[in-house]
Design goal:
Number of helices: 5
CATH superfamily: Gcn5-related N-acetyltransferase (GNAT)
Number of strands: 8
Distance between the termini: 29 Å
Largest sheet: 8 strands, mixed
Strand content: 15-25%
CATH class: Alpha Beta
CATH architecture: 3-Layer(aba) Sandwich
Number of domains: 1
Structural class: alpha+beta
Radius of gyration: 16 Å
Helix content: 25-40%
CATH topology: Aminopeptidase
C-alpha cells in the first residue's frame, strides 16, 4: 500500500531534530559512493551543523514530509539571501525570492519524484506567501551531478559563493513563473500555528492550526 504523505512545519523539538539529522546521515552514507565529498563530514563540525539545523526548526523555517511516523523528506526555507553566501552572485538580490536549504529525500522514497515536487512546492509557496519571483539554491560545489539535476529541472547557474571555504558554493536559480502545481500531488499540507522568525533572512509564514500528526522519534 502506498503511504499517505503530508508536509508540516516542524517545531524545534528533539523528535524533529532527530528526524532531520537522520535524513542528513542517510544521505551522507549514500553519497559516499557517488563520487562526491558532499556531507562526508559535518561542516564545519558536528556542533555547528546541528546548531544550524536546530535553528531552522526553532524559527519555523523547516518543513518535514511525513509518511506516518517516518520522515520522508525535508526542506528549510528562507525568504532572504544569506549575504555571506549570495553577495557575489549574478542574481538581482533585490528581487523577491525563496531560498531552499537542506532539501533531502529519504532513500526509501527514491524514484518517487518527491525531491522535484518538494522543490516546486517551495517555489510556489514562496510566490503565494511573499511574492517570490525566484527559487534559489546553493549546491555543494563539488557535486557536479547535483548541479546537473537542478539544471535539468530548469535552474540556471548564477554565480559562486565568494568564500572559497564554504562547501556549498554553486548558486542556481529558477523563475517561479515556470513552476506548475502538480495535477496529482504526492503530499498534502497540514496547517500549523503561526511562528515568529528571529533570523534576518528568514521570513515567517502565518498558519492557523497545529498539525494533528505528532511523529514519535528519538535522538537515541
Amino acid at each position: 500500500m502506498t503511504p499517505t504523505l503530508v508536509i508540516a512545519q516542524a517545531k524545534g523539538t528533539r523528535e524533529n531534530l532527530s528526524a532531520v539529522l537522520g535524513l542528513i546521515e542517510e544521505a551522507r552514507y549514500w553519497l559516499r559512493d557517488k563520487g562526491t565529498d558532499q556531507w562526508a563530514a559535518p561542516w564545519p563540525d558536528n556542533e555547528q551543523r546541528d546548531s544550524r539545523v536546530l535553528r531552522g526548526l526553532e524559527v519555523g523555517a523547516t518543513w518535514i514530509v511525513w509518511a506516518g511516523d517516518e520522515a520522508a523528506a525535508t526542506v528549510t526555507i528562507a525568504s532572504r539571501a544569506n549575504p555571506a553566501v549570495w553577495s557575489g552572485s549574478d542574481c538581482n538580490l533585490a528581487d523577491p525570492a525563496v531560498y531552499a536549504h537542506r532539501l533531502i529525500v529519504s532513500r526509501h522514497f527514491a524514484g518517487w519524484g518527491l525531491g522535484a515536487e518538494l522543490s516546486d512546492w517551495t517555489g510556489l509557496r514562496g510566490r503565494r506567501d511573499y511574492g517570490a519571483r525566484w527559487i534559489r539554491v546553493d549546491v555543494w560545489t563539488s557535486n557536479c551531478a547535483l548541479h546537473g539535476y537542478y539544471m535539468k529541472r530548469g535552474f540556471e547557474p548564477c554565480g559562486i559563493c565568494p568564500d572559497p571555504c564554504y562547501p556549498s558554493g554553486a548558486l542556481l536559480q529558477k523563475p517561479v513563473s515556470e513552476i506548475a502545481a502538480p495535477a496529482s500531488p504526492l503530499f498534502t499540507e497540514l496547517e500549523a500555528e503561526p511562528y515568529v522568525s528571529a533570523e534576518p533572512w528568514y521570513k515567517p509564514t502565518i498558519r492557523r492550526t497545529m498539525p494533528r500528526l505528532v511523529p514519535k522519534l528519538s535522538l537515541s
